[in-house]
């Protein structure tokens, strides 16, 4: 099996490709240069998928708990809550936090087998930092700025600004209103 971080191609592409089909890795026995660079990258992306993306994407596929079966995608009113949860999950990943998460264990173990050269451990440290920084930038721009803004408070409260205003007023005056009713 070709398990080096640099390709060793003697010109026969079929043998080269076939050599990847017999992968057996013992992560605790990896020596520098043993981890294929592509495999290390895939382990990072898989860890990110498991730690962040999978649960948040699946949330969007769920049925609305009030409207019932067959209403997936009708849960926009939970957008602000979902974005707050996503923000917390991103904070856990950032600044090297992902390194301690079980979802990234295969990545951290494969990282031990990265050799020296162009794609060494320093490269992967920088690549993961840049990945998470760019993901944060795009997330803030497209999700956080819209769903965590006070501009959508009326949708969160009541669906439209007129009903939301009345609903908010009711929340403020609740105790006074209850005294008058009793």
Question: What report would you give on this structure?
Answer:
This protein is mostly helical and 182 residues long. The chain has a domain at 36-148. It contains 8 helices and no strands. The protein has helices at residues 13-18, 37-61, 79-93, 105-111, 121-147, 153-157, 161-172, 174-181. α2 runs antiparallel to α4 and α3 runs antiparallel to α5 (121-147). Mean pLDDT is 77; it is low at 1-7.
What is the topological layout?
Layout (H helix, E strand, L loop, with lengths): L12 H6 L18 H25 L17 H15 L11 H7 L9 H27 L5 H5 L3 H12 L1 H8 L1
* Mean pLDDT value: 77
Low-pLDDT windows of residues:
1-7
Content-based structural category: mainly alpha
Oligomer category: single chain
- Strand content range: under 5%
The whole-angstrom Rg is 25 Å
Distance between the termini: 80 Å
Question: Which H/E pattern describes the elements?
Answer: HHHHHHHH
The residue fraction in helices comes out at 55-70%
Specify the number of helices. Answer: 8
Count of β-strands: 0
The biggest beta sheet is recorded as:
none
Globally, the shape reads elongated
């Amino acid at each position: 099996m070709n398990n080096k971080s640099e390709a060793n191609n003697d010109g026969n592409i079929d043998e080269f490709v076939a050599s990847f089909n017999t992968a057996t890795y013992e992560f605790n026995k990896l020596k520098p240069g043993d981890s294929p660079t592509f495999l290390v990258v895939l382990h990072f992306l898989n860890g990110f998928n498991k730690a962040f993306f999978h649960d948040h994407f699946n949330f969007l596929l769920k049925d609305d708990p009030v409207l019932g079966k067959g209403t997936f995608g009708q849960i926009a009113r939970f957008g602000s809550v979902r974005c707050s949860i996503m923000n917390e999950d991103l904070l856990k990943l950032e600044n090297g936090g992902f390194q301690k998460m079980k979802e990234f264990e295969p990545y951290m173990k494969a990282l031990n087998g990265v050799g020296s050269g162009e794609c060494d451990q320093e490269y992967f440290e920088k690549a993961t930092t840049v990945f998470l920084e760019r993901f944060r930038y795009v997330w803030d721009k497209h999700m956080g700025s819209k769903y965590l803004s006070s501009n959508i408070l009326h949708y969160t409260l009541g669906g439209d600004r007129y009903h939301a205003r009345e609903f908010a007023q009711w929340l403020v005056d609740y105790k006074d209103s209850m005294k008058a009713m009793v």
